[in-house]
Amino acid sequence: MGQDVVLPCHLSPHRDARSLEIRWIRDHISETVHHYRNGEDLYGEQMGAYVGRTVLVRDGLSNGSLNLRIMGLRPSDDGQYFCTVKNADAYDEATVDLEVSATGADPHLSLGGYEAGGVRVLCRSAGWYPLPQLLWRDARGQHLPSVSQTHSQDQEGFFEIEGAVIVTGSVEGPLTCVVRSSRLQQEQESSLHIAAPFFHNAQPWMVALALVLMLLAVSIGLGVYLFRKQAAQSRELGKKDAELVQQAAEIAWRRCVLPHNRVKVTLDPHTAHPMLVVSQDNQSVRQEKQEQQVSDTPERFDYWYCVLGREEFREGRHCWLVEVEGEQLKYSRWAVGVARASVKRKGYFKRNPEEGIWAVQYYEGQLESLTSPRTSLSLSPVPTRIWVCLDCTQQQVSFINADNGVQIFTFTEASFNCMSIRPWFSLDTLGIQLCLRDSTPKTPSPAPRGSCPSPDTPQTPLLGPAGAAQE
């Protein structure tokens, strides 16, 4: 505890990693431990607990080493870490388990008074991590049962444990309290000898009364236990199922969002329908009651209440966050997605992939994909914060619930035909607005224009197996 540790991670086969994006995270995507990209350490998303305590070991980057040094180990550092790496075409991750341990102080023994025909003895020890075991032994080495045991954790994460035992006159010789760390296989112990005069005031009838009360409590408790056992098992199974669902959603979130460049998208007011008004910072759009006095240019939509984003993409992976705001969300109609830069602007046309639009729409209380025919998406509640993820390499468009990481829908084998793709938005309700959220402090630049990669381009494995770190 308090020392430095290096978490191991490396590329397999070995290659120069200095131009890659490397991110060490904890259990969730938002828990960034260290972030490195294009030769720079980025601290905008770093967790507060790791500020000033992490260093990416640069000496081995040219040989594919992604090792991370954590300085001044704390109990809160214990657990699982994910080493993630990506470039323009591939993404991979490996796990490293860090076990942090600390041995506490010698146990402190004290007398707690007469109880149940004997003397109550207390044992307390602090400064342990993880939570240790507390055991009692008599002079012959036989274990004695504890009558109570509690523990607490201080602000730094260290555990204090306290236990009690009732000692009667039949216990001869010294009484020993042992506090043991199962992780370190180390223990601390202290002993106490109670003289015979201490037991004179422990009346035998108190022992008999305690036994009667104990038997009565056991009888009542057994009935309650049998009644509640089935319900407890059902709750435990439900809890485990919920944890598995949450874990699967988190993995899907990392696999879908992390490999993409999170770009800052802006709206193009020159494409907005006259009934739509784009904010001055080009980050939100709303509908008005009357058409705006704007020029009727070839770029502007005149039938569907739509607007495009300024950015155009032809290669790489990109994602952006859209949030729906307003008081009448239940009765609103809106859609988000992508469209070909050459999508029709004038007159009626079907909004589907055949016309160059890949999107999901909320209409009459139901979320649906704008496929042909449309696909109803049963989600409750309907998400109002959605990641739009565009993968030009695989020709896919995915939509992710930003609140829980659950995948909403994915268009596979989208026919981009090597054309430029732009963000696309539609809004047909007063009192509602679509807002673009900047999800990252430092936004990567959009991918450069070029030829459209083949959809069969494989994702090359980047990471070799990582070991476990222990301190």
Automatic annotation (TrEMBL):
<dbReference type="GO" id="GO:0009897">
    <property type="term" value="C:external side of plasma membrane"/>
</dbReference>
<dbReference type="InterPro" id="IPR043136">
    <property type="entry name" value="B30.2/SPRY_sf"/>
</dbReference>
<dbReference type="Pfam" id="PF22705">
    <property type="entry name" value="C2-set_3"/>
</dbReference>
<dbReference type="InterPro" id="IPR007110">
    <property type="entry name" value="Ig-like_dom"/>
</dbReference>
<dbReference type="InterPro" id="IPR050504">
    <property type="entry name" value="IgSF_BTN/MOG"/>
</dbReference>
<dbReference type="Pfam" id="PF07686">
    <property type="entry name" value="V-set"/>
</dbReference>
<dbReference type="InterPro" id="IPR013106">
    <property type="entry name" value="Ig_V-set"/>
</dbReference>
<feature type="domain" description="B30.2/SPRY">
    <location>
        <begin position="245"/>
        <end position="443"/>
    </location>
</feature>
<dbReference type="InterPro" id="IPR001870">
    <property type="entry name" value="B30.2/SPRY"/>
</dbReference>
<keyword id="KW-0393">Immunoglobulin domain</keyword>
<feature type="domain" description="Ig-like">
    <location>
        <begin position="1"/>
        <end position="101"/>
    </location>
</feature>
<dbReference type="InterPro" id="IPR036179">
    <property type="entry name" value="Ig-like_dom_sf"/>
</dbReference>
<dbReference type="GO" id="GO:0050852">
    <property type="term" value="P:T cell receptor signaling pathway"/>
</dbReference>
<dbReference type="Pfam" id="PF13765">
    <property type="entry name" value="PRY"/>
</dbReference>
<keyword id="KW-1133">Transmembrane helix</keyword>
<feature type="region of interest" description="Disordered">
    <location>
        <begin position="439"/>
        <end position="471"/>
    </location>
</feature>
<dbReference type="InterPro" id="IPR003877">
    <property type="entry name" value="SPRY_dom"/>
</dbReference>
<dbReference type="InterPro" id="IPR003879">
    <property type="entry name" value="Butyrophylin_SPRY"/>
</dbReference>
<dbReference type="GO" id="GO:0005102">
    <property type="term" value="F:signaling receptor binding"/>
</dbReference>
<keyword id="KW-1015">Disulfide bond</keyword>
<dbReference type="InterPro" id="IPR003599">
    <property type="entry name" value="Ig_sub"/>
</dbReference>
<keyword id="KW-0732">Signal</keyword>
<dbReference type="GO" id="GO:0001817">
    <property type="term" value="P:regulation of cytokine production"/>
</dbReference>
<keyword id="KW-0812">Transmembrane</keyword>
<dbReference type="InterPro" id="IPR013320">
    <property type="entry name" value="ConA-like_dom_sf"/>
</dbReference>
<feature type="transmembrane region" description="Helical">
    <location>
        <begin position="205"/>
        <end position="227"/>
    </location>
</feature>
<comment type="similarity">
    <text>Belongs to the immunoglobulin superfamily. BTN/MOG family.</text>
</comment>
<protein>
    <submittedName>
        <fullName>Butyrophilin subfamily 1 member A1-like</fullName>
    </submittedName>
</protein>
<keyword id="KW-0472">Membrane</keyword>
<dbReference type="InterPro" id="IPR053896">
    <property type="entry name" value="BTN3A2-like_Ig-C"/>
</dbReference>
<dbReference type="Pfam" id="PF00622">
    <property type="entry name" value="SPRY"/>
</dbReference>
<dbReference type="InterPro" id="IPR006574">
    <property type="entry name" value="PRY"/>
</dbReference>
<dbReference type="InterPro" id="IPR013783">
    <property type="entry name" value="Ig-like_fold"/>
</dbReference>
